[in-house]
TrEMBL record:
UniProt superkingdom: Bacteria
Organism: Micromonospora nigra
Organism placement in taxonomy: Bacteria, Bacillati, Actinomycetota, Actinomycetes, Micromonosporales
One Pfam short name: Response_reg
One term of GO molecular function: phosphorelay response regulator activity
Ranges where the Response regulatory domain occurs: 4-118
Stated name of the protein: DNA-binding response regulator, OmpR family, contains REC and winged-helix (WHTH) domain
DNA-binding region location: 130-228
């Protein structure tokens, strides 16, 4: 059965184009025009992915994203933002949006982004390397996409998981933000603050003291490096 995408946007012109392109790509598509209707639709029948506009009536996209992230099923979210809303875009990423596109955007690019996110959710291989990555009490199983710290399962978004796995596959190597953006997000260009936000969120989940990280360390002027605690 075709995967189902819920489009949440109150601009009928934009939503009609988005829905048409997604349907042409083979997805089942539903559309709602406000945040409250989006939450009701997800509760009634969880979709495989939500395309979520930031500016919505009743409940805005940030609040909808926050509530979706509180669900145990972890429905992936691609957020649509106005190009100038950098602060809101970063906040959306901090709330757990898996991807974003700035308006105006190419519908073809959105379809590609939807496919990329859904393939990762479906367990597409993250590249060559061991299926289980371990470091001290941290264990990342790339097949089932499960991460545990000291036996406790971590709640990671799609991109957080992929970023952690990529960093752990290259221990001791300084990785540029642009390289991480390309390898993890599949973007050849884009806002590198996306990487910074996701590193910050990862540190909050895997570091004993996120303000003094031991695993994901900053390489000033370059990017980040994963330092194994096993030595």
């Amino acid at each position: 059965m075709a995967q189902r995408v819920l489009v949440v946007d109150d601009d009928r012109t934009v939503s009609d184009v988005v829905c048409r392109y997604l349907e042409h790509a083979g997805y089942r598509v539903d559309h709602v025009g406000d945040g409250a209707a989006a939450l009701a639709a997800v509760a009634a029948e969880p979709p495989d992915l939500v395309v979520l506009d930031l500016m919505l009536p009743v409940l805005d996209g940030l609040e909808v994203c926050r509530r979706l992230r509180a669900r145990p099923d972890g429905v992936p979210v691609i957020m649509l933002t106005a190009r100038g809303d950098e602060a809101d875009r970063i906040l959306g990423l901090q709330l757990g949006a898996d991807d974003y596109l700035g308006k105006p955007f190419s519908p073809r690019e959105l379809v590609l982004r939807v496919g990329s996110v859904l393939r990762r959710v479906g367990g597409e291989p993250l590249g060559a390397g061991p299926a289980v990555l371990t470091d001290g009490g941290l264990e990342v199983a790339t097949g089932p996409r499960v991460a545990r710290l000291d036996g406790r399962e971590l709640t990671l978004t799609l991109r957080e998981f992929d970023l952690l796995a990529h960093l752990m596959r290259h221990p001791g190597r300084a990785l540029r933000r642009a390289e991480l953006l390309e390898r993890v997000w599949g973007w050849s260009f884009g806002d590198q603050s996306t990487v910074t936000v996701h590193v910050r969120r990862l540190r909050e989940k895997i570091e004993a003291d996120p303000a003094r990280p031991r695993r994901i360390v900053t390489v000033w002027g370059v990017g980040y490096r994963y330092e194994p605690t096993d030595g």
